[in-house]
Design brief:
The structure is a homodimer. By secondary structure, the first copy, chain A, is mostly helical. Helices cover 74% and strands 0% of the residues of chain A.
Chain lengths: 188, 188
């Protein structure tokens, strides 16, 4: 490792997101990101494997948090309560990173290849949630249905959060969407 | 157009799916598909733009059927009832093509690029269903939640159908999954 670079990762992330927003993801190079952050390309590659990785590095920790929250829900929790616990954990994390989340969303929405990658991430999350529920003894197809429903709620609440002029927070929008999904499925 | 080739499209489809299953999607060429079907490459390209298209040509008609069934549901139908009507239409269509659906599923499951394409197809279906509900006067986020819930039910029921040793039919599995989703969201 080279000399100490305070918050190199945070600076690279900010530089990358700013540049993707200014000139588009396709038109940004790693050299430009490093220069904007006042760091070297070598430092960039110590933190990220490529420029796409800057947008998706959070997927692993997010999945871990979701799965751990589902696993840690009380034994008495129903499958949807366990999923709700997972979504709450994820929502708290994302709420703290709202500015990054909004910038990231805009960049991904502008690029079909990144959108595909985001869809794969969500499908992977749904599978991981179903596994976490089965480990709690939930049977199929209930486990998969609860997991897919949880991801559906997450997608819809996340989209509202990003576009919400009233700036309601994500944990609240997820709570609301879970209630609304219940109303939808019961035909209320 | 050349001479009359009875059911060229169906023969090409069968030849393609058989070959994808035997030697893998990646290792199959259009020339081989045409030869197996007893047709020319030129005939292949009159029906399909490339070998991937054989697997995804049904996506457009399926989406049309879903959207039309949602649009045609009685005015009194709740959002989830309208979605259920759409899923019933799609399920009837797929049930008639079970053998093709199973072969196609196995080919896609073996190839990450095809899986991505399938995820995109499902996300597109969800968006189209939400649009169809909004046209019925359903407000957001209810429209998106009902649409995403419908796709969740479809995914889970479809997977059960493909792997079901008892060979229960898809319309039935979709009805069951809709009921189970209701139980899940109400914590029953």
């Amino acid at each position: 490792m080279g000399r100490w670079e305070p918050d190199a990762r945070g600076r690279l992330e900010k530089a990358a997101l700013d540049l993707y927003g200014e000139r588009g993801f396709e038109n940004t190079t790693v050299a430009e990101i490093a220069a904007r952050a006042g760091l070297t390309e070598r430092t960039f590659f110590r933190h990220y494997s490529d420029k796409r990785e800057v947008l998706f590095a959070g997927a692993g920790p997010l999945q871990e948090l979701l799965v751990n929250s589902v696993a840690g829900a009380p034994d008495t929790a129903t499958p949807i309560d366990a999923i709700a616990a997972g979504l709450r954990g994820a929502a708290d994390l994302l709420q703290e990173r709202r500015e990054f989340a909004v910038q990231r969303y805009v960049v991904i929405a502008a690029n079909p290849e990144l959108q595909e990658r985001e869809l794969i991430k969500l499908a992977t999350l749904a599978s991981a949630l179903a596994v976490a529920l089965r480990r709690r003894g939930v049977e199929e197809p209930t486990a998969s249905l609860a997991a897919e429903a949880g991801i559906a709620v997450f997608k819809v609440a996340f989209e509202r959060w990003i576009n919400d002029k009233d700036r309601r927070d994500l944990p609240r929008l997820i709570r609301e969407s879970l209630e609304q999904l219940k109303d939808v499925t019961t035909g209320a």
